[in-house]
Specification:
Helix content is about 80%, strand content about 0%. It is mostly helical. Helix 3 packs across helix 4. The longest helix is centred in the N-terminal third of the chain and has 28 residues. The chain is extended, with a radius of gyration of 16 Å. The termini are far apart.
């Protein structure tokens, strides 16, 4: 494996660890997932309105996943 490939693997591993930590901390403190946190952030940053397809594209998710998250957030009164 080249030095560049080793660097890419290291960055990927670090990113995975940070994502897991963020997920755990957000869930413990606020009671929702990191994906839901990102969705809330997008909605707050675009309070004039943004459509579901755009949110999905920005978050690299499917529109169906965004729909499920919005439904879950509504059920939690968020």
């Amino acid at each position: 494996m080249s030095e560049f490939e080793k660097l890419i693997v290291s960055i990927h591993r670090a990113s995975t660890v940070l994502s897991r930590d963020a997920e755990r901390i957000i869930m413990k403190k606020y009671g929702f997932s990191y994906s839901q946190f990102k969705l809330i952030w997008v909605l707050l940053r675009n309070n004039d309105g943004v459509n579901q397809a755009t949110i999905a594209e920005w978050l690299n998710q499917t529109p169906a996943a965004v729909s499920r998250q919005i439904k879950h957030l509504n059920q939690q009164a968020l």
